[in-house]
């Protein structure tokens, strides 16, 4: 590791699990003081991530943050700033594949309103709340910061119903935010992963044998494997660091080639 984020503070929503947890660990290894925001129900998992980071000599804290509440998200950012000072990087990784009562493969024609609303509330509105709280923090403090959203390969493939809709909207949200916040010194970019091996993959496999499903997904990539959370964290590190200083409103695909093969690049 090379201290690429030394002296910075980072807030990561959905930091208890999967991609968010990998970002937290990588950022901390690169010298950032990280704050993991996640649901109260994920407190145990978040605490384990914090302990791993601290055992490796890093700085990490966990704060309850339900991104579907604008006020709770603002409160969480204020609490995070009290702990680590300026937050120059935000990763909006909180997300869900589907409503717990409905499958990932549910079509749109008869979609239950609670399913539609829940996925958009967490994935889209939650990302907006996170960017609002993080952007306001950076602008008020005069920080040249970086906000990173999590879209998906599904943003460019209309095969996952409301999840695809939510991620396409995250992609446009990212560009609209980049337009508005870029002139104020805050860059906003998106990561759109392919299939990454995280707990969400279980939900995405829709009751099929998970290992068989992952093998089938791996076979579709030109690199012959599904991704690991660390593959995404490496891209997030680039977007958080000064190496991406001239990037704004962009979308990057750590996906083993899926977007290139199946979604126009
Ligand atoms: P994950 O392992 O399920 O982690 C997501 C985290 O977000 C979980 O800790 C989850 O808590 C939390 N969360 C859910 N609702 C929340 C809320 N309202 N407020 C705060 N936190 C909340 O999933 P992941 O695979 O790391 O996914 C991270 C992001 O990448 C998501 O936006 C996902 O759509 C996107 N992505 C993932 C993949 C993939 O293949 N894994 C591909 C493309 C894009 P609970 O566990 O308690 O729900």
Keywords:
Rossmann fold, globular, binds NADP nicotinamide-adenine-dinucleotide phosphate, 7 strands, seven-stranded parallel beta sheet, 9 helices, 265 residues, alpha/beta
How far the N terminus sits from the C terminus, by CA atoms, comes to 30 Å
By CATH's scheme, which homologous superfamily applies?
Answer: NAD(P)-binding Rossmann-like Domain
Low-confidence stretches: none
Summing up helix and strand content along with how strands pair, one would put the structural category as alpha/beta
How would you sum up the major sheet?
7 strands, parallel
Q: Which outline best applies?
A: globular
Number of strands: 7
How would you describe what is shown here?
The chain has 265 residues and is of the alpha/beta class. The protein is globular, with a radius of gyration of 17 Å. The mean pLDDT is 97. The protein has a seven-stranded parallel β-sheet, sandwiched between helices. The chain is built from nine helices and seven strands, in the order βαβαβαβαβαβαααβα. Helix 1 packs parallel to helix 2 and helix 3 runs parallel beside helix 4 (113-141). It has a single domain, classed as Rossmann fold. 47% of the residues lie in helices and 13% in strands. NADP nicotinamide-adenine-dinucleotide phosphate is lined by residues 13-14, 16-20, 38-39, 41-42, 65-68, 93-96, 122, 126, 150, 152, 193, 195-196, 198-201.
Short description:
With 265 residues, this protein is of the alpha/beta class. The protein has helices spanning 18-29, 43-55, 70-84, 113-141, 161-181, 199-204, 210-220, 229-240, 258-262, and strands at 9-13, 33-38, 59-64, 89-92, 145-150, 186-191, 251-252. 47% of the residues lie in helices and 13% in strands.
């Amino acid at each position: 590791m090379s201290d690429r984020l030394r002296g910075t503070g980072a807030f990561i929503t959905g930091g208890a699990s999967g991609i968010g947890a990998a970002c937290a660990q990588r950022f901390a290894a690169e010298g950032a003081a990280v704050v993991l925001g996640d649901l109260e129900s994920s407190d145990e998992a978040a605490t384990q991530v914090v302990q791993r980071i601290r055992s490796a000599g890093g700085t990490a804290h966990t704060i309850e943050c339900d991104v579907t509440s604008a006020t709770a998200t603002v409160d969480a950012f204020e609490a995070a700033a009290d702990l680590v000072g300026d937050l120059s990087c935000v990763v909006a990784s909180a997300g869900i594949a589907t409503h717990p009562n409905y499958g990932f493969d549910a079509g749109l024609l008869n979609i239950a309103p609670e399913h539609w609303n829940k996925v958009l509330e967490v994935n889209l509105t939650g990302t907006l709340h996170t960017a609002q709280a993080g952007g306001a923090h950076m602008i008020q403090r005069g920080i040249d910061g970086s906000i990173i959203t999590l879209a998906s390969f599904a943003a460019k493939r209309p095969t996952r119903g409301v999840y695809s809709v939510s991620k396409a909207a995250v992609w446009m949200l990212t560009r609209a935010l980049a337009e508005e916040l870029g002139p104020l010194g805050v860059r906003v970019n998106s990561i759109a992963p392919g299939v990454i091996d995280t707990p969400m993959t279980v939900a995405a496999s829709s009751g099929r044998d998970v290992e068989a499903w992952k093998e089938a997904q791996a076979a579709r990539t030109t690199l012959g494997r599904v991704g690991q959370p660390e593959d995404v964290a490496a891209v997030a590190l680039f977007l958080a660091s000064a190496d991406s200083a001239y990037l704004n409103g962009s979308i990057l695909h750590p996906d083993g080639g899926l977007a290139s093969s199946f979604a126009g690049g």
